[in-house]
Amino acid sequence: MPLEPLHYRMIGQDDYAVEIRIDATGDYRIENGDYTSHAPRRGCLDETQRARLQRLTSALGAPDERPAPTDTSGFIVELNIGEGSTQRRYRVWEGALAEDPELEALVRALEVL
Question: How many domains does the chain contain in total?
Fold first, then answer.
């Protein structure tokens, strides 16, 4: 089964952000930083990483949005899986990730690439 293209973005405080793009071939680009600049990292998933991401994306429930409660700070996770009309979109306050263990497992797997 081919890997679905994936775009992950975490936006936080003090201009902190992480953005990961993975294409259908497993090539990825990771951009992260805060108020300083960092060169993007590039690579290609190995077979173990591909299989794990395929398993984790397949286990996700329906697309969801869980905004942060009023007057709350923290990170916002945005995740798009697939392309076009079949694309699934998730937007979740990091504090709500524990409510969705499958999504949390995928986010944690992406964070260690």
Answer: 1
